[in-house]
Design a protein that fits this description.
The chain is an all-alpha fold. About 75% of the residues lie in helices and about 0% in strands.
Length: about 190
């Protein structure tokens, strides 16, 4: 059998082989890039990455949403609190925490409002809770789940559907977020009667 390298079949066959090799290389590069992006997002968002996958039902949709959060965060100017602001917020927190023993539901509602005030003072935009939580997840990914749980308890408390122990849990969750936001440790919260 005599192989003619200039025959149309040989040229077409060679082009197909080259095209297949190029597609395989491009697919490998894209796959590697996606794996890198996935690992980067997992590292950046921690448990929030897994929560997003569950929420959106697929890795691809979750990653698109997380990337959108990062892009939105580029336009948010988060700043540290001034010494005066920090002192004022810490005094408010101590007062709220002190009221918990006698008025747990009211204290939890006030704690939620204080967290919102601290977020706004730090430069986070206001808005509906889920948007605030998404914005917080970029800077504080490990605290956004506790923030969501505390807010859920607060919503139930407003409908008189939370136990005192749940309200105490919400205060503890809010305290962790508060301490991170004001970059300070607070005193331990007393148990409600």
């Amino acid at each position: 059998m005599n192989l003619n390298v200039y025959s149309p079949q040989t040229i077409i066959g060679a082009c197909v082989v080259v095209l297949l090799v190029m597609v395989a290389i491009a697919w490998g590069v894209k796959r590697r890039r996606n794996l890198h992006r996935t690992e980067e997002l997992r590292r950046r968002f921690g448990p929030e990455y897994d929560a997003a996958v569950v929420q959106y039902g697929s890795r691809r949709k979750a990653e698109a949403a997380l990337v959108a959060r990062l892009r939105r965060a580029e336009h948010i100017q988060v700043r540290p609190l001034t010494t005066t602001e920090r002192s004022r917020f810490m005094a408010e927190w101590d007062s709220i925490q002190g009221r918990f023993v006698d008025h747990p539901r009211g204290a939890v509602t006030e704690a939620d409002e204080l967290i919102n005030s601290v977020l706004q003072a730090r430069g986070f935009p206001g808005g509906v809770f889920e948007q605030r939580a998404s914005d917080v997840s970029v800077q504080y990914p490990r605290l956004v789940d506790p923030y969501r749980r505390a807010n859920s308890i607060t919503v139930h408390a407003a409908q008189n559907e939370s136990t005192t122990e749940e309200l105490r849990s919400a205060m503890i969750l809010y305290r962790a977020l508060f301490e991170e936001l004001v970059q300070s440790k607070t005193v331990a919260m007393p148990r409600a009667a």
